[in-house]
Amino acid sequence: MPHAAIRGRKFLSPAPSPASELNPVLLRILAGDYGGGLALYRTLAHPGAEDRRWAAMCLMHASQWVDAKVLLLDAVAQGYQEASIELATLYRTLGEVGLAQATIGALPLEALRKRDQALAYRELGLQAYQQGDLGQAATRLQQAWAAAAASRLGTPLITPIAHALGIVCAERGLDDQADSYFDYAQLHAHPTRQVFVQASRAISAAYLGQLDRAVECLAQAPACPADAASPADLQVLYARGITARAARAYAEAAEHLQLLSGRATAAGDIELACYAELWLASVALAQGQFGAAQRHVARAEQLSAAPKTEAMVLLRRGLLAARRGQDGTAALETAARLFSGPGRRREEGWCWLCLCEAHLALGDDVRAEAALAQALQIRYAVNTSSLAIELDSLPLVRQHLERRGADDARCLLQDERRFSRGGQTQIRLQTMGAARILVNGQTLGLNMARTPELLTYFLTHRKFTLPQLQVALFADHPHKRSKSYIHQVRAELQRLVPGLTIPFDPATRTYTLHLEEHLSLTWDVDVLLGALKTEDPAVILEHIALYEGPFLAEATAEWAEFTRTELQQLVLSRCRAQLDRWKAAGQWVPVLSLCEALQRVEFDEVLCADLVTALEHVHGPEMASARLSALAKRWTAEFGEPSPVLTALMAELAPA
């Protein structure tokens, strides 16, 4: 029966006796034995509509959504409308928000027994939470608690309600109340529910920068199996991803969240997959990987089905635009408005911080200050450090706070320090194009211009003497001057990156680069060359963007010049080998993309010919001819004579 027709139907199920609240399949579920509940259902000779309802709940726990939906629709069709509660839960989980609301909205709540009232109000509370209305969610969950307390089931029914209230209170910044609800749920929950509670506690702690506590909560949760797909397993995976993201352990966070996105999608939990993609976008933004961030935002937008996730998509999209130097203020202002309505102060605060970044990027300091003032007001009103989890994605805001030096600025910077304690510090050395050093996504302000060059030498030479370094990098400089410069760079690195040292060994008179365990250093050259060893077009095309220009373009030392030429030839040789494989397989789309990217590595006539051929296959001869003409003109202008290869190709493409 279409669900639109349910609203007008008479309430058909007979008035139940109190004993019917103690359905044996339901009792197995409340004890956490979903497998046992399903097995018991299958032994029943004549299962009724209520039995189908609880069997469907067991199937939903195992992510068997289609089988569960069949049982629930069958139960509703038989007049057992209480099954609409679980049917609404199923629709909500699968992202069918409108169906979920319509399905439970058809129920006459006051006519239900207390057990079903509790379940219905809990579902309404979770729907309000999904929509981002925390106040309404709290009200509905309190109604659920009162109904559960009046039912014969009591505590087993109250426990998941207490867990949900803990989550809502944590997001409202009511940390003490959240802890009380989590304590109750932890004390009375069956083992499966306890896993959920620990994961929720870890997420709440991670948002606040209480990383040790988050790790402790996760240590009490079981490790996810390789094929983990149950709701509890997915929630733990999500908590691990959020905790790693908060700790700035970007590689670990990306690993957990990427796994979660795939498994949640396969399990049918579209909302959780959407959040995984949104946090993957956050991880990418923190590292300045804008192409990856754009893909994750697009994926999240495709999965989004609720106002809360739609607002989060706007937040990530607006920040991505700002980081790219574009105007993202409209998207961010809309997101802030969507979050402020239902009182989601934490997310609203993130929006104002991102708006500060956007205005600073546009050179509008007045509006940037106004946005920062709004964020600080929320910081003090909610008394939470959770706003600072976003600061590693906001380099201009962070620099602005450091310049201000006022008490309110120090407050946010002190909050941010919570998110580095106990977590990995990510150092990224960029040497292709504009040379720079980034720590947790923030570009270091360097006094010594050649610091990236020296750090590259330290990284690529395990041990070196001072004379070796002077000859390699400062052959044309006075000995005393170069020695002083080297020691200033050494001191600057050790000051700006705590845990990075370049100790001197008096026995061998050598220096070495040393990184403490909490430091993780990646070098763009290593990352690019590693990616070029793969066969995956997506990986290659993403990482070839790291080649933003020649290696250490400003360096004039012989060592740098040799490395520059060697790197260029190595990149070209590996890419040409990959192009040959793709051409042989007829994969012209990646051929076209890679040839376009290689134009900034070298203007080569063979690569130009491959680009034109790929254009012909992908977009047709007209576009290929136009591009070939432009390339041929450029070649003649740069080299003073036509290219034989391009001239021959023009003859081939000419109309007969």
Description of the molecule:
The protein is globular, with a radius of gyration of 30 Å. The termini are far apart. Mean pLDDT is 85; it is low at 1-19. It has 32 helices and eight strands. It has helices at residues 24-30, 34-43, 49-61, 65-77, 84-93, 97-105, 114-131, 134-150, 155-171, 175-188, 191-207, 211-219, 231-246, 250-267, 270-286, 290-303, 307-323, 329-340, 345-361, 365-382, 395-404, 407-417, 451-460, 466-473, 479-496, 524-531, 537-543, 558-584, 588-598, 605-619, 621-639, 644-653; strands spanning 425-430, 436-439, 442-443, 500-501, 504-505, 510-511, 514-515, 519-523.
Q: How would the blueprint of this fold be written?
A:
Blueprint lengths: L23 H7 L3 H10 L5 H13 L3 H13 L6 H10 L3 H9 L8 H18 L2 H17 L4 H17 L3 H14 L2 H17 L3 H9 L11 H16 L3 H18 L2 H17 L3 H14 L3 H17 L5 H12 L4 H17 L3 H18 L12 H10 L2 H11 L7 E6 L5 E4 L2 E2 L7 H10 L5 H8 L5 H18 L3 E2 L2 E2 L4 E2 L2 E2 L3 E5 H8 L5 H7 L14 H27 L3 H11 L6 H15 L1 H19 L4 H10 L3
Parallel strand pairs: 1-8
Antiparallel strand pairs: 1-2, 2-3, 4-7, 5-6
Helix pairs in contact: 1-2, 2-3, 3-4, 4-5, 5-6, 5-7, 6-7, 7-8, 7-9, 8-9, 9-10, 9-11, 10-11, 11-12, 11-13, 12-13, 13-14, 13-15, 14-15, 15-16, 15-17, 16-17, 17-18, 17-19, 18-19, 19-20, 21-22, 27-29, 28-29, 29-30, 30-31, 31-32
